[in-house]
Each structure stands twice: as structure tokens, then as C-alpha cells.
Amino acid sequence: MSPLDGGKPKDNLYKSSLTDTSHHIAFLTPLFWINDRARTSTRIKMSLSSVLSADAIDAAMKDCQAPDSFNCKKFFQQCGLTKKSPAEVKKVFGILDNDASGFIEEEELKFFLQRFNPGARVLTEKETKAFMSAADDDSDGMIGADEFQAMVLS
Ligand SMILES: [Ca+2]
Ligand SMILES: [Ca+2]
């Protein structure tokens, strides 16, 4: 028997079964994934104190209470983040990325201090812009996980 024998019927069978089922699959996209993502981000938010000590966070917060006194490098040193492992730094990134988009946008950066302490002030526009430009290596206006890690651990 040559390999070509019977090739045609098989091919036809495959084609017909593909057209019968493939157009049904598009309707199965589950909408509840959106809710699931929001729940995950709430869970991560509660774990900042599991990475950093409360005393170190307090010390870092006290030092930038006055508007325009915030310096991101100094803050990361004072809160102890610069001494953490890449995995822990990534965890903190996940907390700061409040909407779980995979990036820290300028809007999230503004509320940076409030992730550490809900009663803290928002960053001024000047501080937010300085923070962004210190981390945003590819200038896309957002801080990616790699950019965040590079800034903190540099
Ligand atoms: Ca985000
Ligand atoms: Ca970027």
C-alpha cells in the first residue's frame, strides 16, 4: 500500500470535523475572569507587611512627610526594600500595581505612599514625575516589573 492511498478520505474527514466544531468554541470565553483578577489584587495588597517591617516603613514615611521631600531611592533604602530578594521586590511591585495591569502607571505612582500607609499624603506632581523618570528606562510612561527591580536593586 502506498502512503498516498487513503490520504484523501482522511483529509476530508479532518476538514469536515473542523468546520463542524470550530465556530462553537468562540462563545466559551468566560466573563468572570475579570472579577477573579480584582480579587487576586486585593489579596496581594494585604501582604506588604509580610515583606517589609513596620518600623522600617514608619521611618521611611516620616522622612517624606513634607510635600516635595520624597526621594524614591532614599525611600527604598529606608524601608528596607533594597536589601530584599528579587522575588520580594517583585511582590512589592505587584502591590503597587493596584489594577494588576502589569505596569505601575503614573496614576498609581501618585498614591505610592498610601500603599504603605493608607493615611499618607499623595505624591506631588513633581515627585511623581521624578519617580517615573528614575525608573522608566524605555520611556513608555509606565514602570514595568523589570524596570522597578532594576531601580530598587541598583
Ligand atoms: Ca497598573
Ligand atoms: Ca517603562
UniProtKB/TrEMBL annotation:
Keyword field: Calcium, Metal-binding, Muscle protein, Repeat
Binding site residues for Ca(2+) 1: 99, 101, 103, 108, 136, 138, 140, 147
Residue ranges that the Swiss-Prot or TrEMBL entry lists as coiled coil: none
Residues engaged in binding Ca(2+) 2: 97
Gene Ontology molecular function: calcium ion binding
GO cellular component, as recorded: cytoplasm
Domain EF-hand: 84-119, 123-154
Protein family (similarity comment): Belongs to the parvalbumin family.
Its biological purpose: In muscle, parvalbumin is thought to be involved in relaxation after contraction. It binds two calcium ions.
The protein's name in its UniProt record: Parvalbumin
